[in-house]
């Protein structure tokens, strides 16, 4: 049976909207991590068969297939193709899935997967502006309206609906967020991210975590919606970053003398209610565990994207997963969420955390626009 292996993973620091990465061109930033990945794994770039990158805001400097332009911007071989995909926040996790599936199918042996997003340069929602300017509906036409009516469809409303349905109070959300920042600061101070990060544009560490965050400070913030429970403090911030992962077959590992670090154990993707939008990690996790023949207690590390605090809290409540093992080094609330890059960023963090702690299985899942989610289980190679 064919196997797909993770050979290498690297990421930039995640930057803030006004930080040191904000003015960097996304193609150059992505090109930097692509080149660094190949240098670290000592792979001949000419042997790579495809480059698959996730990117959500595919307009302006992120348009025209940034996977291809990033590869070429890095001075890498012209004969290697690239494609850019959009599965919303899970775009680069899906890129990893597509790369693994190509290897598992036996059609390709060596693929680079990853993602990039400069949300400071390409604001979130830029790719819907044209339709709005022409008076077109935000989402769809008559078919959508017949099915879902004219109710508001947004991630912010979805997060509020989840908090309400699962009964999370504002203070519970804020306590979760404070803990995310605490864990992230500990991870930075202990150097847990140092080996996985490649400095770029003079930035060496993640810029987002707030060392001075307290419940008292959070309590003073304005609600995002009147009568709601959500504030900016329990949401992931505008961010900038890139990450890349090398996926290889057993034949490629032998041929290129590579060292496998983890095996792709199970892959799943699921649709969910597009109004709640962010509950997809719950069924996606169940699917991945079923496909992998595992239980929730078999997993040593969980990376669950903290788009908003209610998302991992509802996920943990439904799956029975331990919050102690979930985002052990902080999540997107503290470390940022550069949309199309986050999936590969989380995969990189999970791989390194398994190696740091000696864990065997890691499970990553992310909520995605439109009511979707990916889930990936990897097994560390001892």
TrEMBL record:
<keyword id="KW-0012">Acyltransferase</keyword>
<dbReference type="InterPro" id="IPR020613">
    <property type="entry name" value="Thiolase_CS"/>
</dbReference>
<feature type="domain" description="Thiolase N-terminal">
    <location>
        <begin position="5"/>
        <end position="250"/>
    </location>
</feature>
<dbReference type="GO" id="GO:0003985">
    <property type="term" value="F:acetyl-CoA C-acetyltransferase activity"/>
</dbReference>
<comment type="similarity">
    <text>Belongs to the thiolase-like superfamily. Thiolase family.</text>
</comment>
<dbReference type="InterPro" id="IPR020616">
    <property type="entry name" value="Thiolase_N"/>
</dbReference>
<feature type="active site" description="Proton acceptor">
    <location>
        <position position="367"/>
    </location>
</feature>
<feature type="active site" description="Proton acceptor">
    <location>
        <position position="337"/>
    </location>
</feature>
<dbReference type="Pfam" id="PF02803">
    <property type="entry name" value="Thiolase_C"/>
</dbReference>
<protein>
    <submittedName>
        <fullName>Acetyl-CoA C-acetyltransferase</fullName>
        <ecNumber>2.3.1.9</ecNumber>
    </submittedName>
</protein>
<dbReference type="Pfam" id="PF00108">
    <property type="entry name" value="Thiolase_N"/>
</dbReference>
<feature type="domain" description="Thiolase C-terminal">
    <location>
        <begin position="260"/>
        <end position="380"/>
    </location>
</feature>
<dbReference type="InterPro" id="IPR020617">
    <property type="entry name" value="Thiolase_C"/>
</dbReference>
<keyword id="KW-0808">Transferase</keyword>
<dbReference type="InterPro" id="IPR016039">
    <property type="entry name" value="Thiolase-like"/>
</dbReference>
<feature type="active site" description="Acyl-thioester intermediate">
    <location>
        <position position="89"/>
    </location>
</feature>
<dbReference type="InterPro" id="IPR002155">
    <property type="entry name" value="Thiolase"/>
</dbReference>
